[in-house]
Amino acid sequence: AKGKKTWIYKADNVRDFAFASSRKFLWDAMGVDLNGRKVMCMSYWPKEGEPLWSRYSTHAVAHSVDVYSKFTFDYPYPVAISVNAPIGGMEYPMICWQRPRPEKDGTYSKRTKYGLISVIIHEVGHNWFPMIVNSDERQWMWMDEGLDSFVQFLTEQEWEEDYPSRIMPEREGGLLGYLKQENKMPIMTGADSLQSTGYNAYTKPTLALNILRESVLGREQFDYAFKQYAQRWMFKRPTPADFFRTMEDASGQDLDWFWRGWFYGTDHTDISIENIHRYSVDTRDPYKEKTSKKNKRDDEPKRLFQNRNKSLPKRVDSFPELKDFYNEFDELEITDKDREAYEKMLKGLSDKEKALLEEKRHFYKIDLKNNGGLVMPVVIKATFEDDTTQEFRLPAQIWRRSPEAVSKMLVTEKKIAKLEIDPNRETADVDIENNFYPRRIREHQFRLSKPSKSGNPLRDKKKAAEKSKRDEEKRKQAEEKKKAESEKKKTEEKKKD
Ligand SMILES: [Zn+2]
């Protein structure tokens, strides 16, 4: 039809707007129920997005609306839309754009698949930060990108088990490599001056908040406080202090040290075990003490000169009359005098002292050194001589008198064979090797050539299937040809007959 048509759109409580139009769009939708209210989750994409977009886009939108609502407040808008366009992830209220598409042959790499799901979650998540919890992106980039990336991580982990979240740094390289560098900026740097924004605005805040949740506050306290922040500041203008203050007063914890270290500072986590000392009571029991001293002495290696002098002829061997009592006497041999002294001492002990003598537990002093500067909780896994283990969780407050080094006492029922700190890899410790006591050998590899790029296994599989199909056809053709030839031969032979 000819003529003009006017569309009028109205949206409440939005701080920006955008729209998309195309004759080519495919469209699907799925409702998400939020406490009885239906939010319509939708996707628009051209056929070039197939088969990825019909499979994942709307589900990713619906999943985001679901999980973000759980961690913050119910999504207040009526619709949430994901559009495929050549824009590398861009957010607006209720609508966002994503670039990832499959290859022309319909195959796609693992990175493309999870890249698409992740970017949809991230951009839909921006509805909460900063569209509704309305922080100022031009001053503090982490307040929207960081908080959104953190909830994106939580949302991804509820998509499938061990979802490959690129927003959560791997142990090697990436953010942990950056954190070790000398010249860094704090997360709190103004957005105009901020460098390495991928780390400082996205992955470092995500890592920090995950540590705050898992290792400092615990999930219950953190989730309550985080929700408080989102709900207090929805449709308002929070500044960093509002976030820090809400997390503290809602959790009831003083977190100044945490904000100082992770948001205002550039230190990293690198805690090492320097030494272990074992303390035991001197029982004065000659059987115990003298025997153990004797064993220790006899276990000591002979010194070099002693070994070399061993074969030298000795005067006392040439003149045996020179030998007397002291040539045989061992001062660590138990004597009657020792026994009597011990009996006498026992009689003079108070009950308290006697109880101490019977102490069966082991006392260890662990010397910890803070190489990275960041004060963090310390998790210690002790492995005992019988291979059983025990975990000790020490709060960050252990560093309050000296952030450089601290010693902690561990009291155990069994004898410790070895120690490991951060056994669950929860504190982003950049050097794992100094977490072991005793140390492990540091493993390195010579590289013979450049590593190959990660490819598209789905296409490899498709190509392999096509090749085996072609091979199969060739084989059939060859077989038929052979058959035809032998038939021909037969008829010719028959003719001869
Ligand atoms: Zn973003």
UniProtKB/TrEMBL annotation:
An example Gene Ontology CC term for this record:
cytoplasm
Q: Which GO terms describe its biological process?
A: peptide catabolic process
Q: What are the residue boundaries of the Peptidase M1 membrane alanine aminopeptidase domain, all occurrences included?
A: 69-262
> Where do the segments described as Disordered lie?
284-307, 443-497
- InterPro entries documented for this protein: Peptidase_M1_aminopeptidases, Peptidase_M1_dom, Peptidase_M4/M1_CTD_sf
Biased segments, Basic and acidic residues type: 284-303, 463-497
GO MF annotation, one: zinc ion binding
Q: Could you identify this protein by its name?
A: Peptidase M1 membrane alanine aminopeptidase domain-containing protein
